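Batch job 17 of 40 flagged for manual review because the log was empty.
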Amino acid sequence: MGYRIAVVGATGNVGREMLNILAERQFPVDEIVALASRRSKGTECSFGETTLKTEDLDTFDFTGWDMALFAIGSDATKTYAPRAAKAGCVVIDNSSLYRYDPDIPLIVPEVNPDAIDGYAKKNIIANPNCSTAQMVVALKPLHDRATIKRVVVSTYQSVSGAGKEGMDELWNQTKGMYVPGQEVDPSKFTKQIAFNVIPHIDVFMEDGSTKEEWKMVAETKKIVDPKIKVTATCVRVPVFVGHSEAVNIETEDFLDEEEAREIMREAPGILVVDKREDGGYTTPVECVGDFATFISRIRQDSTIDNGLNFWCVSDNLRKGAALNAVQIAELLGRRVLKKG
């Protein structure tokens, strides 16, 4: 016996990836529906070997459906997620709307699976920010062993994190560089993204940080440990898919780089590729389409007593969004609904 699943925002990058991953992982589905805005009604989406035609989210009745995976913006989620939850359908939301609500669990299944029990308060579960999700997968096993006190992270985030418009802008600007008269001015981003990097993601906060940086701080504390100190610099780079992070941690107990390497090799969701030779590390291009969070460049930080550096790469449309949502659905099925 399987589940009745709704994918909300099925025509977007993340929604389509949710459908792909549900099929790839053979999620136990009895019935599945693709939902989108009225203007996208009838658009075809693939689910394995099946072609689905999107239905109108505005008129859809969630009664009798088990789970809804939401991949729409916060404004639309604010309207439709409570409607689904009230109808008895558990919402797994990819927007930022509910991440900081104390009554809604924020979950990365490899890190804090026990938090799933809190879903019943509002019938909603939040999916973390893409940059946070991959980092906490790497932090958790190290924190369990040596207790992380402080994290300093610089991100190198792909344009797909800004949606289809971001990917289109990089593509069009890149083409325009080689065709006189076809240059493309920035519209999605604040400056040219082709052959450039932009140290600005989301809006600026009063303290000078951006909201993307604030998200990494707040979400790491909620998912892993509220006592961890986090400082982040988030940068948009001209990469289509795949977020990268240079992470520095300070721990309470000494942790040798060799032990850290072995701990992460054994941890769920992590693939260590760490050879001290040319090409002995993973780059964004190589992680696309993969489920894992890749860790490379593990080494001691000699400037502090208990410090480590490492490089963290993951497909942001997968682990940073769609895959994590499907893993939450799998966890909910195993531990709570128990149909599949």
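Reviewer: the log was empty due to a logging misconfiguration, but the result itself is present. Residues 142 and 259 are 10 Å apart (CA to CA). Unflagging and moving on to job 18.
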